[in-house]
Amino acid sequence: MSALKIKKGATSHSAYNLRPTFSDMAERHTLAVIVDNEPGVLARVIGLFSGRGYNIDSLTVAEVDHEGHQSRITIVTTGTPQIIEQIKAQLGRIVVVHQVNDLTVEGPSVERELALLRVTGEGEKRVEALRLADIFRANVVDSTLDSFVFEITGAPEKVDAFSDLMRPLGLQEIARTGVAALLRGD
């Protein structure tokens, strides 16, 4: 039987070395992908993620160039720097993909999300829901005697904070669009 000896002070890559290095830390990235607007393109992009076990935190897609028949897919995902680089490289190899931008590393960006929230409640809960909506600059887009539908636009963290505050006040349902993002400046 042979034994493996490791010199004192040498580092090993084993399951017992649990201290994460900088490159092991998962980061949130926002990717903007310009693709041909044709059937099956979104399925191919999503298939890349699901086939490799990558998660998508947010996904939005819309045609951005009617004459050129191109769409923009905005994907928010989380992974180590190596995984993010692998995702970008694999996206770039898909024939119908024209451009892949990592907005997280290319500079400051603006991210916004739209959400609709249906909140039911009576009395003080109803008053408190309206007060919080005013603070968060959410609009009432529908109202009945026992419920409101609020529309809120902002950074995903703002939408999260508003929905967290609405839960004890009677949040019944929420619909979110996903992140739309652009680089700031030129």
Automatic annotation (TrEMBL):
<dbReference type="Pfam" id="PF10369">
    <property type="entry name" value="ALS_ss_C"/>
</dbReference>
<comment type="pathway">
    <text>Amino-acid biosynthesis; L-valine biosynthesis; L-valine from pyruvate: step 1/4.</text>
</comment>
<keyword id="KW-0028">Amino-acid biosynthesis</keyword>
<comment type="function">
    <text>Catalyzes the conversion of 2 pyruvate molecules into acetolactate in the first common step of the biosynthetic pathway of the branched-amino acids such as leucine, isoleucine, and valine.</text>
</comment>
<keyword id="KW-0808">Transferase</keyword>
<dbReference type="GO" id="GO:0003984">
    <property type="term" value="F:acetolactate synthase activity"/>
</dbReference>
<dbReference type="InterPro" id="IPR027271">
    <property type="entry name" value="Acetolactate_synth/TF_NikR_C"/>
</dbReference>
<dbReference type="InterPro" id="IPR002912">
    <property type="entry name" value="ACT_dom"/>
</dbReference>
<feature type="domain" description="ACT">
    <location>
        <begin position="30"/>
        <end position="105"/>
    </location>
</feature>
<comment type="similarity">
    <text>Belongs to the acetolactate synthase small subunit family.</text>
</comment>
<keyword id="KW-0100">Branched-chain amino acid biosynthesis</keyword>
<dbReference type="InterPro" id="IPR045865">
    <property type="entry name" value="ACT-like_dom_sf"/>
</dbReference>
<dbReference type="InterPro" id="IPR054480">
    <property type="entry name" value="AHAS_small-like_ACT"/>
</dbReference>
<comment type="pathway">
    <text>Amino-acid biosynthesis; L-isoleucine biosynthesis; L-isoleucine from 2-oxobutanoate: step 1/4.</text>
</comment>
<dbReference type="InterPro" id="IPR019455">
    <property type="entry name" value="Acetolactate_synth_ssu_C"/>
</dbReference>
<dbReference type="InterPro" id="IPR004789">
    <property type="entry name" value="Acetalactate_synth_ssu"/>
</dbReference>
<protein>
    <recommendedName>
        <fullName>Acetolactate synthase small subunit</fullName>
        <ecNumber>2.2.1.6</ecNumber>
    </recommendedName>
</protein>
<comment type="subunit">
    <text>Dimer of large and small chains.</text>
</comment>
<dbReference type="Pfam" id="PF22629">
    <property type="entry name" value="ACT_AHAS_ss"/>
</dbReference>
<dbReference type="InterPro" id="IPR039557">
    <property type="entry name" value="AHAS_ACT"/>
</dbReference>
